[in-house]
Amino acid sequence: MTSPPFEEVELNKKHEEILGKRTVLLQQMESRYEQQKSKRRQQVKLSQAAHERNSQLLQDLQKMENRLRTRKLPHPDILNLETRYWASVEEKIPEWERFLLGKGPHPSSDPSRTPKQQKQKTTPRDHAPTQDGALPPRPILKRVK
């Protein structure tokens, strides 16, 4: 028998190399495909969880909205008094702010105040700044329609 010509041997070697590379590439593609499938499954789970959270939040908001609709509003006079009270508190904040921060005198020592305002009794607590030095919380103003 005669041996195959040199070119045929070289072609067979190249063919084997190509088949080897093809096998490696196929394995890489399968691996990447599995990774993508795993990633998609994870994304689907995250999406479903987000959808459930959003659905629950929507239900909670609808319940709150219904409660607000059915809640009885206070008498208009009370709302008016409350609004005027908080407006006056807001107006006086600059006067009290320096005192409450420990940076100025008590507002009643202001010479521009009327004698009646100066005679009002104060307790020792009125002269002390807050324990942590912070301002008291600001009220939520309700607006009358």
Secondary-structure topology with pairs:
Elements: H1 6-70, H2 76-100, H3 115-119, H4 124-127
| Total DSSP helices | 4
Order of helices and strands: HHHH
Uncertain segments of ≥5 residues (pLDDT<50)? Answer: 122-127
C-alpha termini separation: 109 Å
Strand elements, count: 0
Question: Averaging pLDDT over every residue, what do you get?
Answer: 83
The secondary-structure class comes to: mainly alpha
Portion in helices: 55-70%
Strand content: under 5%
Task: Describe the sheet with the most strands.
Answer: none
Radius of gyration: 40 Å
Task: Describe this entry's structure for a reader.
This protein is an all-alpha fold. It is 68% helix and 0% strand. The protein has helices at residues 6-70, 76-100, 115-119, 124-127. It is elongated, with a radius of gyration of 40 Å. The N and C termini lie far apart (109 Å). Residues 122-127 have low confidence and may be disordered.
